[in-house]
TrEMBL record:
Signal peptide: none
Protein family per UniProt: Belongs to the ABC transporter superfamily.
Keyword presence, S-adenosyl-L-methionine: no
Alphabetically ordered keywords of this record: ATP-binding, Nucleotide-binding, Transport
GO molecular function: ATP binding; ATP hydrolysis activity
One Pfam entry name: ABC_tran
Nucleotide-binding found in the keyword field: yes
Native organism taxonomy: Bacteria, Pseudomonadati, Pseudomonadota, Alphaproteobacteria, Hyphomicrobiales
SUPFAM superfamilies associated with the record: P-loop containing nucleoside triphosphate hydrolases (SSF52540)
PANTHER family: BICARBONATE TRANSPORT ATP-BINDING PROTEIN CMPC, SPERMIDINE/PUTRESCINE IMPORT ATP-BINDING PROTEIN POTA
Domain ABC transporter: 7-235
Protein name, as recorded: NitT/TauT family transport system ATP-binding protein
Organism per entry: Roseibium marinum
InterPro entries per UniProt: AAA+_ATPase, ABC_SmlMolc_Importer, ABC_transporter-like_ATP-bd, ABC_transporter-like_CS, P-loop_NTPase
Length: 277
């Protein structure tokens, strides 16, 4: 069991050099160890900027980020970011790709034990010797997840890593990533445009507004155990989030609804069918 990190941002704002874009206003935020938090909002509202600052890849123009009480000034293998592209090396096998983080961090002595362990976690135990080019997009994203988990991160930062996947694969990965992070106690911060994805994965969602990026609303999603879009509590959280999104983005409800994949509005969804089988 990993102990997820406690994250605090104090007066964090960010202005990009050159063009002078004020990407973030003033963000004061606390994320508990092991919590799953979604950042949701329209394109350009500063979600990726905030995620980069939480990782230490960017430093805020003002304010600071504390991780377990210590100010961060650089990236760390204990805070891993995942992006839309799985970024695997096509000439390497699954297990070689999963071992890359360990190799770069001088931990290859752990590879023999860690690689099979994390491949089991992402349900690719039988794929260790396979070439990654022979895997589906969803399986490749699972390899990238295994590579991140091999480093025993305290924080996992996801920047829309599932947005290129089909609805069925996406639902399965949403469920599995949440489950794995909860089992291992990892703090999860997830950027998404998809309201349904936020309800599937997060304990709490922050709705952001743009110009400059700021937190406009906070919605708690207290659904225990695995989540299904057909659950009444799921529908309630989704409606609350759509209303907050509508208010933050200044858009009509119909437009906000378009951020919910259509398949999730009708039951049974792929996830419901998966659970039924
Ligand atoms: N490197 C950069 N230089 C200058 N401005 C930038 C840079 N990166 C982002 N911005 C600007 O900062 C603002 C926030 O960008 P950011 O990428 O954080 O938004 P986002 O919410 O992640 O958007 P999307 O949903 O489209 O990914 C935008 O106005 C963007 O144009
Ligand atoms: Mg972004």
């Amino acid at each position: 069991m990993t102990n997820g990190a406690h994250i605090q941002t104090i007066g964090v704002s960010h202005t990009y050099k050159g063009g002078g874009t004020r990407a973030l206003g003033q963000i004061d935020l606390e994320i508990c160890p092991g919590e799953a938090l979604a950042l949701i909002g329209r394109s350009g509202c500063g979600k990726s900027t905030l995620l980069h600052i939480l990782s230490g890849l960017s430093l805020p123009t003002e304010g600071k980020v504390l991780v377990d009480g210590t100010r961060i000034t650089e990236p760390s293998p204990s805070r891993i970011m995942m992006f839309q592209a799985p970024s695997l090396y096509p000439w390497m096998s699954v297990e070689q790709n999963v071992g890359l983080g360990l190799r770069f961090n001088g931990k290859m002595n752990e590879a023999g034990r860690r690689i099979p362990e994390v491949l089991e976690l992402v349900e690719l135990g039988d794929y260790a010797k396979r070439n990654v080019q022979d895997l589906s997009g969803g399986q490749q994203q699972r390899v990238a997840l295994a590579r991140s988990l091999a480093l025993k991160p305290e924080v996992l930062l996801l920047d829309e890593p599932l947005s290129a996947l089909d609805a069925f694969t996406r639902h399965a990965l949403q469920r599995d990533i949440r489950r794995i992070c909860k089992d291992l106690g990892i703090t999860l911060v997830l950027v998404t445009h998809d309201i349904n994805e936020a309800v599937m994965m997060a304990d709490r969602a922050l709705v952001m507004k743009a110009d400059p990026g700021d937190i406009e609303a906070e919605i708690r999603i207290p659904i225990s155990g695995d989540r299904l879009p057909s659950m009444a509590a799921f529908g309630d959280a989704r409606r609350e989030l759509v209303a907050a999104y509508e208010a933050a983005a200044g858009m009509a409800m119909a437009e906000a609804q378009s951020f919910i994949p259509q398949d999730s509005l009708n039951t049974p969804t792929p996830i419901d069918r998966l659970a039924a089988n």
